[in-house]
Specification:
This protein has 24 helices and 14 strands. By secondary structure, the protein is α/β, with parallel strands linked by helices.
């Protein structure tokens, strides 16, 4: 799209419009609406846009002045107001040529309206292209996508939502999922639990895919697909409602990415952190968590102690290389290297100078992660997140007494942390006596917690007869940290080991001491476990009961029971858009794996797309990725949700729902 939808331009840099000269640059203007701006900013930064020939990018809604003799790329949603603004820009002759790209399919009515408006102004000759890009979703990670629909859980459960509004929301979800599947060039089999929003999405998506495959003159799923074997390996699309597991939205995590999202709420792959300098002044800093950052890509899913060690090792490696370069150049710092005379330098030094941009980028990355780690350590110490994480890892061993002690502990200063801990305890213990619940709730009120989210969960459980829980680590689940004598058994001393780290992360000094501290906490790893969503996906892909034990989560009309996810999965609706005769594919022993799988694969699907309606998070995403990596052969799973939601945002939705739902 940024190269005017011409793939031949991708390797030749920004080219002149209407010329075949690969050496003639042309610079373009990018105009997008706010939604499409978020799509672009998730994967590209200003430097990336400039590398692709974009010198100016502006919002469609903003007041813009004319830039003559320059082509403009428009990227926007197919809405009447956007069509109107585009027609006005054409009438004002703001740019030379207009390359129009819609995030999803442009309805014929809007296309005709656009044609009428441009014909009236006599500007249709300036429209060079009109494309449906099918890109109405965000892609924060290689195997993760979000529809960027905020507060979907609240919208679906709100009593104020009319049937028309719900139907419109379902249609938007279906449209975005169609775009995701088209981007993946995959027509999957579909499965979803009965009776809720997931089933509505499944049936409408099945109809949309079926209509496109059977009746369209041009099958977009077949365009550009050369690998026939790969195309025959159809994935399974597992659609789930958020109600199937509320606990995962409130869990505390110990992995780097999920911990950052919990504390700083990753939005469009950016975070903002308020930090205090040596003079006591507070300043807010924004950091980009780019997939192009090799350190982030390699460490995002690792436990935080391992990441801290990685930061130390990366800083030591950088310092050694920087010292070598400055030694060869006879200068005092890297800043002086760029001023050296290349002609007078040796070949070895010339190579070192050539590597300077890469070293500079590495230093910026290391500095960023050091600052983030420092802030994380402060939050861990202030909120005792290590203690909370340890308690949740061993939730099956917690009692009413230990929960009340944690609620009353003045060292645990964040009230939402206390509420989350009790909710997880309640969901993990289906047989908890009402008197015990009342006693814990009294402690929460005395501590000053907002009880509205808990009150709504009670309403939801009474309405749906829903019970959900988090996973308790099983002894045989594997990995260090299982059981009381495992890795997490010693995590109560974690803050003692980390207490002196934050003041050492600011620079590259005292590295040996820093490394020894980090090496002492290498074994503080989360235990391996499978969340309810992962168990359902495992059953969907294999048609067999999930292997791990210790997970109990039930939902009315199709939740994960203590007997396993496989029985739940059998009650799902199963659809195949490629099947000529429409209907439920599932029999008593049906699996979601496509029937075309080879016998050597045992009928199991090797690829899956998991989509949660009502919000997802990085904890579920990383849990699914771990399952895919452990599988033999390795499975490929893509995780998506209506939005990536932090625990605090999810609690806010529960609070508003409680206010709008009658008692």
């Amino acid at each position: 799209m940024l190269h005017l939808n011409d793939e031949s331009r991708l390797t030749g840099g920004p080219l002149a419009v209407g010329t075949e000269d690969q050496n003639t640059p042309i610079w373009k203007v990018l105009v997008f609406d706010s939604f499409c701006r978020d799509i672009v900013s998730t994967v590209l930064r200003v430097n990336d846009l400039r590398d692709n020939g974009i010198t100016v990018h502006m919002l469609l809604e903003a007041q813009r002045t004319s830039i003559p003799d320059v082509p403009a790329i428009y990227f926007m949603q197919p809405k009447p107001e956007n069509i109107k603004r585009l027609a006005e820009d054409l009438a004002r002759d703001l740019y030379e040529l207009y390359y129009v790209n819609f995030s999803s399919s442009l309805p014929r009515t809007l296309l005709e309206e656009f044609a009428v408006q441009t014909a009236a102004s006599g500007t249709s000759h300036q429209i060079a292209q009109v494309y449906d890009q099918y890109l109405n979703f965000l892609c924060p990670e290689e195997s993760m996508f979000s529809l960027h629909f905020p507060n979907t859980f609240e919208s679906i459960h709100s009593p104020a939502m009319t049937d028309t509004a719900i139907s419109s929301l379902i249609d938007r979800i279906v449209s975005a999922l169609f775009s995701v599947l088209l981007t993946l060039k995959s027509v999957p089999t579909i499965c979803a639990p009965r009776g809720n929003a997931a089933e509505m999405v499944a049936t409408r998506l099945d109809a949309k895919l079926r209509e496109h495959i059977m009746n369209s003159r041009q099958n977009l799923f077949a365009e550009g697909v050369e690998d026939v074997v790969a195309q025959s390996r159809r994935p399974v699309l597992v659609l789930l409602d958020r109600d199937i597991d509320l606990g995962s939205m409130l869990m505390h995590s110990w992995t780097y990415q999920a911990l950052i999202h919990d504390l700083y709420n990753i939005k469009l792959n950016q975070i903002s952190i308020t930090q205090t300098d040596s003079a006591g002044r507070k300043a807010k800093k924004t950091y980009d968590l780019s997939v192009n950052d090799s350190f982030w890509a390699n460490n995002a899913a690792l436990p935080f102690p391992e990441v801290a060690i990685g930061i130390d090792e990366a800083s030591n490696a950088f310092r050694r290389e920087a010292d070598e370069i400055t030694r060869m150049g006879g200068v005092g710092s890297l800043d002086e290297v760029g001023g050296l005379d290349m002609g007078a330098s040796t070949k070895q030094l010339q190579r070192a100078i050539t590597s300077l941009p890469e070293l500079t980028a590495r230093k910026a990355s290391i500095d960023m992660h050091m600052n983030i780690a420092t802030s994380l350590l402060d939050s861990i110490k202030d909120r005792q997140l290590d203690v909370l994480f340890q308690m949740e890892e061993q939730m099956g061993r917690q009692t009413k007494t230990t929960i009340i002690e944690a609620i009353n502990d003045p060292e645990k200063k964040d009230l939402q942390d206390k509420l989350r801990l009790f909710v997880l305890f309640m969901l993990a213990n289906e047989g908890l006596r009402q008197s015990d619940i009342d006693e814990c709730e009294a402690a929460l009120r005395a501590a000053g917690c907002d009880m509205a989210p808990l009150e709504y969960i009670h309403k939801l459980r009474s309405l749906n007869k829903m019970s959900s829980s988090i996973a308790s680590p099983s002894v045989g689940a594997g990995g260090p940290g299982s059981g009381p004598s495992g890795a997490m058994g010693g995590s109560s001393d974690l803050l003692g080991k980390f207490s002196s780290i934050s003041n050492r992360l600011a620079g590259f000094t005292d590295s040996s001491s820093l490394g020894s501290i980090f090496s002492g906490v290498r074994n503080l790893l989360p235990s391996r476990k499978q969340l309810p969503v992962t168990r359902i996906v495992e059953s969907a892909m294999t048609g067999k009961p999930a292997g791990a034990s210790g997970i109990r989560s039930t939902v009315a009309a199709g939740g994960v029971a203590s007997g396993g996810a496989s029985r739940v999965f059998e009650d799902f609706v199963h659809l195949d858009p490629k099947q000529v005769r429409r209907g439920n594919l599932a029999g008593s022993n049906a699996t979601a794996g496509p029937r075309s799988q080879t016998a050597s694969e045992g009928g199991s699907a090797q690829e899956a797309i998991v989509f949660v309606i009502g919000g997802g998070n990085y904890i579920e995403y990383q849990n699914l990725m771990e399952f895919a990596q452990r599988s033999t052969p390795r499975k490929h799973i893509v995780y998506g949700s209506t939005d990536v939601v932090s625990a605090s945002d999810f609690l806010a939705q529960l609070t508003r729902l409680n206010q709008s739902t009658p008692k």
